[in-house]
Design goal:
This protein is an alpha/beta fold. Helix 1 runs parallel beside helix 9 and helix 5 crosses helix 6. It has helices spanning about 15-30, 40-45, 80-90, 105-115, 140-160, 175-185, 200-215, 230-240, 260-280, 315-325, and strands at about 5-10, 35-40, 50, 95-100, 120-125, 165-170, 190, 220-225, 245-250, 285-295, 295-300. Strands 3-2-1-4-5-10-11 form a seven-stranded mixed β-sheet, with helices on both faces.
Amino acid sequence: MLQRIGILCSGGDAPGMNAFLRAAVRSALDLGLAPYGIERGWSGLLSGDLRLLDSHAVSGIINRGGTMLRTARCPEFRAAEGRQRALRTCREHGLDALVVCGGDGTFAGALELHEESGLPIAAAPGTIDNDLVGTDYTIGFQTAVATAVEAADKIRDTADSHDRVFVVEVMGRESGSIALQVAVAAGAEVVLLPERPEIGAAQAAELLARARQQGKKSMLVIVAEGAGTGAAVAETISASEPNLDVRASVLGYIQRGGVPGSDDRVLATRLGYGAVHALVDLGADCAHHIGEISGHLVRTPLPEVVGRSKPLPLDLLTLVDVTAGLRVTAQDL
């Protein structure tokens, strides 16, 4: 019978994780379960760094960025010996199941632990990359986009004032989700994505040259870090089009922190509630990802989620290309 559950965040932090923890803890208490918060993700589980949480412990955190339990990457957990240490901690503290929040690496570790031990695990998507299947959005993505759009808008002001091209680098080593959303919302002329390698810095230079010929004085290029660094892209554009005044700006970790937006708070709260209830409903068979699709909570077996990436919405790619106004002009008609 389920009595004690462990709750942790692993991998990179994402705005909304605290809202998730608050909902998971209070949902557990509502069901008569004892929730234990595990510090620093899998690392804390290996070292036995965990504590019993009550309702007061998660008061006043729904509007805070980051995670009150802290998070870390844990290479030791990737080895079978490390996972056995984690399992010993669960047994020593009487943990019957785990609730985890993180990205694909977190889910892969959770699945291996379940397969090796049978420990029930419910996993929720907490990553700004929004690259996981089984959910429309991941916790933190919408806030990260809003942060990046606000920065891009301010950079656009300077670009307008100086007739410059700005290359704005956003996060996304393997996923261009943030870059694509920011490009649409900020009205960028060009977006460079790891999923679209055929459009690189050289092609961007050609598009920007055409835009200048059409009379555009300032322009914005959004580049996901996995498609090239902002500095390298700016250098290539400058070398190809020396008449353009090109600057680069890297937004960096400001995208991961900050106050979570209302959408992320609501999503995280629903997923925290849903994760705990999945453990109760599915019992020993629970090794599931808890997501939200079309406004409904969806439980997906972890093997169907781990290692799979969500494709980019092609309609947004089309929107960037069309609304930049570089494909067809009055002279082309």
